């Protein structure tokens, strides 16, 4: 398999997530009629950018206790043993296993996602947003990525049956990441 060159101007090296300019968001269908949207505010990531997409890698961590859905009662329930069980599972991780370059702007990141003590392979559909100069006058890289996971695959099975049929919380969860990486050090 041939390696896909990185987009023009992307420097190789070690990179870290800029938490002030990055987001980890999710949404899940609620009661079959609306969506609950939330974010995690304690996120971290490191990337190694090689000479191609395929020689690059990324590792990330999320602290699920940092969940924020604009409803403190719901956030506390999500932190509890019914859902995230943050006392026993304080960190979620993603470790890339392969990055496939696609057309050089749109690419895919395969990796192992660990949530609630369960590890499953996932693929993130990603888009390179560009390279620019950050406030420290160093290069900064931007990309966004999305995937959809099954809560049940990760042992997150709490639910309530609705009188009208269906369940209170959908099994499918959409994850959206907006990431800025800055040079490490």
Question: What does this 3D model show about the protein?
Answer:
With 185 residues, this protein is mainly β. The protein has a single domain, classed as Lipocalin. 4% of the residues lie in helices and 52% in strands. It has one helix and eleven strands; from the N terminus they run E-E-E-E-E-E-H-E-E-E-E-E. It has an eight-stranded antiparallel beta barrel. The model has no long low-confidence stretch (mean pLDDT 92).
CATH topology: Lipocalin
Question: In one word, what is the shape?
Answer: elongated
CATH class: Mainly Beta
How far from one another are the termini? 33 Å
Structural domain count: 1
Order of helices and strands: EEEEEEHEEEEE
User: Taking Cα atoms only, what radius of gyration do you get, to the nearest Å?
Assistant: 18 Å
- Number of discrete helical segments: 1
Q: Mind describing the biggest β-sheet? A: 8 strands, antiparallel, barrel
Which segments are poorly predicted (pLDDT under 50) over 5 or more consecutive residues? Answer: none
The helix/strand class is mainly beta
The helix fraction, in percent, is under 10%
The CATH architecture can be given as Beta Barrel
Compute the number of strand runs. Answer: 11
Rounded mean pLDDT is: 92
Strand order of the largest sheet: 1-4-5-7-8-9-10-11
Question: Beta-sheet strand percentage?
Answer: over 45%
The CATH superfamily is known as Lipid/polyisoprenoid-binding, YceI-like
